Batch of 2 targets.
Target 1
Amino acid sequence: MKPPASTFSKAPVKFRMPTADNLVPIRLDIEIDGQRFKDAFTWNPSDPDSEVAVFAKRTVKDLKLPPAFITQIASSIQSQLAEFRSFEGQDMYTGEKIVPIKLDLRVNHTLIKDQFLWDLNNFESDPEEFARTFCRDLGIEDPEVGPAVAFAIREQLFEVATQSVASARESRLSKKGRRGFEYVPASKAGGAVLDLVKLFGHKSSVVRKRKEWEVYEPIVDHLSNEEVDALEAREERNFR
Amino acid sequence: MAEAKTMAAISPPKEPLGPSDETPSKPPLSSQTHFTTAATTPPVKPETPTTPTPTPTPTPTITISRETPPATTTISSKPPNPLPPTSSDADVVHVPSYSRWFSWQKIHDCEVRFLPEFFDSLSRSKNPGVYMYYRNSIVKQFRENPLRKLTFTDARKTLVGDVGSIRRVFDFLEAWGLVNYSPSAHNKPLRWDDKETKSESKSGGGSGAPLDSSAAGPNRESSKVVCSGCKLVCSIACFACDKYDLTLCARCYVRGNYRVGVNSSDFRRVEISEDMKADWSEKETLHLLEAVMHYGDDWKRVAKHVGGRSEKECVNQFIKLPFGEEYLKYPDSGDVDNKYNPVKDQVAECALESSGASCNSKRMRLTPLADASNPIMAQAAFLSTLAGVDIAEAAARAAVRSLSQVDHGASREHLGTLARNTELREADVASNGDAARNASEGAYVEANSQLRKEELDVERVVSGITLQMKEIQDKLVHFEELDLQMEKEWQQLEQMKNMLFVDQLTLLFHRSSAPKTDERMEQKNIRTD
């Protein structure tokens, strides 16, 4: 199977999330007076900025946090949004890119570990749909897992996208010509393209090797209360 | 007062209000219940104080048994905390009547209208399917525990999607009472305190407001005054001295329990008893009415004008006043002297004479007939209220009598209008008391009888004319007959003439042909025969 060489020469595309809907993953981790607020959700960057204030107030009120959180939350969201928007005008390399996505998260009493491949070129991809199907297939009962999974995927995609912007910029500066696009990302994007070549080279088949099954298998663990407490304590220690 | 949440017609409003209505409404409200956002119109309109009803009527709610939604593509939504599995008909959920349209499988027009982002196909991720997923999950989540208020954060934590859209759906559902709607909170009459805290706070839904305001309510109503002398709560009356910033209860004041240097005349009496609060003096009511007339809905200024009453009390008192207060548009009594109609002099004079004896309370009750387009009528109405009931009745009777003495030559319509005017005038007076009604009825009856008499006269005359016409017709017929007869006779005469002519001819023939008499005679005979 010949690697499709034509895809290497794709013209760069304006930066955006490589998903069907251009949503920004926002992560909040604020501590005020010993109270810690952690949250992660998806935000639509085309919402007006007034939404940020409204959302912050609403969240603080719903969770009965002290009002000092409002400004912190709002500013955090704003800064992440600004960062996202700063990438927006720039070009993004969109060559052949299949990246591994790793899930390693704990939501309430559910522990999830998973790894899979994701096509960065597919601008129709939908992490939300993936998350919904994931939870349904694995029979996860906690409704908070779905959004967490979607968020994790989105976050990683966002990282990869920003990296590709940086790499595109760099490669254009350093090297000129199409060849530059081919090889530079191969070294900088974490070896994803390399895997692809190996996977779909004429020597191997599409079916995954047996020894790699465990790597790519989703693991869902339900923890008991003590384990949850232990993990949380460990996380706090790491945080500090 | 009636229920707080009234929906504007669903074309909101009202909001909705709503939605009456509308929604509010129509209901575009960035948070109808929050009275802020502009995304959705509020289907709920803040309850405007209307005429007091004896019992508060709750907004009609429909209760639907919880239906299990069809299998959706959502993640299974059993909550992590152990709740007993909800059987479908076990519990009953209350839904306000303006949200009757809700159904698990369908999307209603108002949803399309208020949340167009999902239906305009601009964004690939926002489509009706996604909307239904959000909506159904939120409603299901709420209904699992309808007594607990579902916060937006809870909802969005469990939904996959961008929080902006989820928030809008959540606000929409909350505004329309599909989420966080507990009828128990609404069945009790909404106090003014609750309404104020509702409009101020951004609490979601009516269930939040009464709970929040319960703490604030007592603080607002009872301003406990503690005597600075004996440190007890002043109950009935307290004496405040502004010079030295002292507040003494009545007992301390009487006993002289204040510092040296403070004179007893420095104190002014401040009534705080509940009874006193309820009683509005005439003067205060007059002030109130004037203020409302000038300032309309600006209750702050009204309260300032009245002096000594809070806005709340002003509004309360205003709505307690008789209905006529709403038509509060009468000119100053000073101008009345200049505009008098001589026809109504009698009424005016009677009223003037008795105005000195008028009682104050009458002034408060204005008549509905303060029609700006007819200032004279308005003043007559006003005067009739100044005067007492009996006097007004007597004046009306005198007026009617004088009118009845008017020449009958006046057209019927004039009389009718006058009668109507007196009728109206009487009606004004009658609004004050029942006694005047008889006079008005009497005048009315008289006018009616006169009308009937005139009608009879006319009829008689008309019938006379018809008789004469009949006579003429008969004569005509008779003449026609005579004519015919004449014709006939004339014809007969013609015939006889002809016969005579024939006879003459035969005679001639006879003479000329004498020899041939036999034949000719025979012929003649034959001929004449």
Target 2
Amino acid sequence: MSSSRPLDNVNPTIFAPTSASSSSRRPKNARALLWNDALDNYELDSSEEEREEIDSQEIFDLLRSITDPEHPVSLEQLRVVNPEDIHVAGNRVLVWLTPTIPHCSMSTLIGLSLRVRLLRALPPRFRVDIRIKPGTHQSEHAVNKQLNDKERVQAALENQHLLQVVEGCLATASQRGMPSLEVKAEEEQGSKPAARGTMPWVA
Amino acid sequence: MTSQDVDRICRTHVSTGDLDPPADLLLALNDGSIILSSVVKALGEFLTSEENAVRLKGLTFLSNIVKQMSPGKINRAATQTLTNFYTSKLDEFDALVPTLETLIVLSKLPTFDDETAITVYKAISEQLNMKAYVQAVRHAVYSVLDSLIALHRKALKNLGAEFLENYVKLVDGEKDPRNLMMLFAMDRVILLEFDVEPMIEEFFDITFCYFPISFRPPPNDPYGITADDLKLSLRRCISASPHFAKMAIPLFLEKFSTSTGPTMKDLMLSIAACLPTYGAAAVQQRGNELWEGIKVEVLYSSDTSIEAAGYQALEALIATIYPTAQDVPSGLAQDVIKQCIEFMEDPEKSQAIAAVKALAAVVRASPSAGPYALSQVLPYLFTKFNRPAVPSSRGSILAAISSLLAAARSVYGAPKAKRHQSDERSLSPFRETLVDVLREGLRTEDLKLPAAKGTVSLVEIPGLIGRSEVEDLVRSLNDALLNDRDEQVRSSVVQSLLSISNSYSDIVESTTLPLLFHNLPDRAPSTSDSDTRDRYRRTLKSLTRLCVSPSFSETLFIRILTKLELLSTAPMIENSDGDDVMNGEDGVDERECNVAYSFELLMCLVEVVEEKIASKHAEIAKYFDKIIPRLHGLLVGAAAPRIGLSQPLFRNRRILSLVADLTETLTRELSIERQSKQFLDFYSAFEKGQIVTICHDPTQARGLNGSPLRHGAASAEGDLIALYASTVCSLKADAAAPYPSADAFFSSKIHWAVHEANNNWQLRFALWMITFFVNKREKELGDSLDSILEAVWVKEVVETSLPLETRCRALSVYLHTIKGLVVLRSSVAYAALERVIDVLKLSSFDPAFVNEAAASFGILSSTESRDKSREKHLSTKLLHAQKLWNYLLPRLIEGDQDAKGRDRLPYLVAISSLLPLVPASLYLSDFPRIFSLILRSLQLSEPRQRTNAVSALIAILETPNHSTAVDQILHERAGDMVTSLLQCSIRDGESSKSSGILRSTALRCLAMIPDVIRFDILRSQKAVVIRDLGRTLDDPVRAVRKEAVECRAKWFRYGAGA
Amino acid sequence: MPLLELVQELPGHSEPAWQVAFNPSRPLLASCSTDKTVRLYSFDDRSFSDSLPASDDPKPTFSLLSAIETEHKRTIRSVAWGPDGRTLATGSFDSSVGIWEEVDSDAPEDDSEGVFKPSTEIGGEKVVSGAGEWECVTTLEGHESECKSVAFSSDGALLASCSRDKSVWVWEVQPDADFECIAVMMEHTQDVKCLAWHPKEEVLASASYDSHIHLMFDDPDGDWCIFQKLHPKLPSARTQSSLPELSPTADEKAIESLNIPPLEEDETVWCLAWSPCGRYLASGGDRGGIRIWRRKGNQPDSLFEEILHTAAHSRSVFSLSWRKGGYLASAGGDGKIIVWKTDVIEDGDGPVAPRLSMNPVAAVREAHSVDDVNSLSWCSREEGRGFLLASCGDDGGVKVWRLVRD
């Protein structure tokens, strides 16, 4: 049950997740403002689809429910990713991630999980830059360089062990802030997708 | 049957080795024509034979007889002899199984007395060496013991120590789960009923040696014994005797250090189960150590289920030591509380949260320690709350207070609570402070949520706070309700108001409601003024939840109607021509703001009504007259012709549809008599032109002369069909009809639909009216139906001289009539359908129309949720869908096969339009053919038909454990399936060729493939699928993108495990 | 100004393609990918012009010769041809190096040259009939982790490989596919991204994540050793260019609003390219700049110095290829391919190579639609032929371009 190495952060502060996808900040045209989405039933003709751009809220929804490698809680609950730390312009995405503690050796793994999730969930036209929030990690710059080396990311994805851990973290990603549906399963074998050893891909 | 016969039978059977007793023998035994002893005598020579084999045969034969004959026929003597005989055989290893089986039977007989029981028991314990036997034999032995203990307990008790000693020896070392289940049950009985104290150590050994159980059932274990079954029954027996305490508690303590995961959880639950029986005295001694063990888990375990079990253990611990209000909460309780309070030093840490839960457990546990805990922790929290180290921590502090209140509520506020606040007075000293804290919480950002939760608990604790305090709190709640922007906060505020209104509805009604209504403006705010708009939306949301409660509903309805009437006088200048809602561009004028506002007001009313109906509020019908006439009045008034460009609000079709829905829902709730009256009123309004009969206020009908359905009536008047239709649709079949002749009435509606309806919006209502009318009045219409349908078909549908549009209208009238009939499985309907099927042949002559005809089968299988919910109210006969499907499908398939090239298309269109009609299970029967049809349908151009095909696929893939045949076909065609689904999922260029629904459905289906198709089949395609899905991630519609993401994630994982 | 025109888009890989390489002596193009295959394309090349072709000159036609399903267990990161064009080396993330040879290439040697073979269907894709059967003759084990680059020396006598394990290995090529490791250099502090042999001499350059470039040779009195460790110093100079492709797009402007902080650590050196004359070495960096290093003497171990640093791409430069006539092609994470003209600024000759100027002369945006361009390769076969440039990208696509005069 317990992971073979001591946890980096034994008892992180856990925050309540915010109510699921509060996309209220999205800009709408005047009519959309007036007729809120709930009334689609009464739309008289299904209007021609207008493009809903991918915004930071949508990207946050992709990331919020990824599970922390050490604890059975989401990155959102640990405030590792925050809506206001995600920025989109054109085909570029910038994500700031905030490690729970400055010496967290999991940061690279968390970053990798984010990277993989976005690699899989965003259209290929997007270029993603992941950065550690300045001053929140001892080896901030090293981790940044690490996370943005596409060759290493590719190699990491071909490392079965590492991939398993990442898949473990991503398994919950689809919840998008909604409460988990299979609490049962979790309860039985208890704790977490345990990440053992140091990251093999950290040179 | 003579004794010779018996001899013969016995001899032949034993010698031939056929040891099944013949029926006639059993018969003879059962009707008493021969007695068992004569059989025994007949078998004598074999039973005593020197040859083991022969002896065994004889014995087994006898056993089979005993097992099969009716128990009543074995008299006391026979029982004696047989028992003695078999007991004497216990030492014959080979004979053991039949012997034991027979003893089981015998031991259950009424003629089997205590002495016999004892002899058997002694024999078993002296002669059997359990270690030597296999599971089945041991199981048999235990079964004998079980029935002895069940039926001759007293006698065995009298054996005293002797019994217990032997028992312990017998069961020692058992490992098999099936046997253990049995033993644990026996152990429990013995522990409860026998004097085990002198032997307790031995019993400790034979029970606790299994604790904690770590058992993994074999993959497909036929006995289906789970780890939890074993844990539970072991728990029941180790918690059976207080004498275990001395040895058990040290064991528990020792296990704390060694257990993890599930075993730790088991340990906690076992402690929770045992301590109460073990009793205060014993537990007290090791109380502190137990607490230490529990503490570690609840504070540091990352496994929520262990943590929860920990609190149970703690609760049991405290409850055991401090059971009554008289027990002084000194010692352990003091320590626990003290330590918990220390952990609360930094309230945001996860330990602090755990500590609160621990204290809550204490509160629940004991009428003495509980109040004491509160008396200690609440003041502490209050000071912290008023002078927090860091401001941010106040939220957690208040949350702590709330969860303590919740615990108190679960003790005092439960339906039939044993403990009462009025006796314990644990919270009374803090009453005012609590109210103050909560009030402040409700006023402060980030504190409202816990405050609202706390308030609910506080209010629900009987006899704690008084009216004035409630008023206080409600005032703060109202404030939060009106001004807070956080959805969660508001909804829990509403929750507390609701629970308050259970006991103080008048307070809520006199303070909260007026405030809320005051927040509803008389005129809609402009588009730019989003604050006001958000406020009225928040307000309506709250009202919707509050006013479901009977005490508030009426007020709400009246207030909303008044607002609507006010709005109806709003300026009517129109920025564009008639069809306001249609105009796509962003130019939104004041009028539309008012329309939208009115719509949301109505929506609130509708939701309350629906909620009340859903929760079966009896009084609902009485609101009909308060609501419906006034609304109809508004709409009629708006429909009246106007001079110039003015466009009254209530001409808006969104509003019309909504009111129509409401009319339908409420009319359904009316009595037959009342419905008949409605029908009459509407009849005279729409057929005789006395429109005033449906108005609340006569003046509203001014300017309207004649029926809204008359030829040449203005479009706005025609829109009123919505009200007529919704009324007719909601009538029960036996509501009195106002018209002279049903078919005349029906024909006139058909005529109106085909020739008079101004547009599709009006047509849709007319069609619903038609469907429901034929459906409810089939009998009345009788034979005329046939001729009416034929007339429509011949004179309109296939009358090529008519414009295509008219023909298509007639066609959908035709099918909507059929729709009302097929659900009754009426022959008329099927006959009428033949015409439609025939016309499909003609695609080369009349392509546009035939395509329309093919698609029109979709009318019989609605997919839209609103249509479906309406259809629920049609009267139907069983299996109508299946019958229709089985009727149409073969014909369509035949047509498809006879046709060539493009001429096959109509049949495919028809089939795919029909697919939603039935569950997948139905087409699994004829799977190979249907499946290829579905795959072909994925190539059709019309998105709706492709959507049907995909949905059908989903249904197929969803149907659990379909046959191997189906599975095989699925695997054969998997490649094509995936390719076509990909095509459906990707949106390129012209949107007419695709739809958001199609794409998201296709993606959902594609996401199911990895669960259904073996990886090796699609391995080669995986990379391509993933690459192409990359394009779907960029879909313009957000909802589609969501599906795309999940689907692609699924495909990334596909085969990754292997 | 010349133009870079698309000659043909080839049936590419199902997963990202990492490197393309033109066969130095036969009309063959090789590409490798994460899909663990190597694809070979043959083409007919009739243009012998030594100067830029015109865009209406006949274009060569490429077609898929074969898609080799290799034994590699992970991404094939690198492919390299032996100078004789008969041997192919593959470097894979599974840490091994594969050596490939054509089976029964009894097909007449030179006259088969440039003869375009009619194509047939195989696996739904055009595949040239006959030939193209390649087999793995040996696998070189030794690296502890992902092998990232392989390269044959100019005369084919040596093969070099490098890896994430920070090491650079030099193998001696012996008869019948026997390879012997003669040197292992472990002086990089991070993974080694790229290797490049001097076009004429046995001098090897390696580039690494540790932001250094190492130069090594076979010390006559000793073993293989590193004789210089280059570390970039020059600040990057903006390029003035009239090329419309290089002016920032609306999207790129929008992106500036994010002001994404640059990576603080020294930048990875992703790629290297020698000038055909062997007097200059070009390197491409993670921040999108191209640096030119010149050789200060004509000894094997003459030192190099940095003389130029040009801002080129808006993201990492992943590949450089330098062609006779001073055409240096660069490509990278911004999806652009840029062709630079490098000119010697004569200042009296001597052992020290003169200074150099470089200017963009042609470019394409979104060369592989939205995806990164991972590799470029000029067709260097028979000096001055065709001006063909191959590229591959994360979309798995392989494309051939041609530099034509305007």
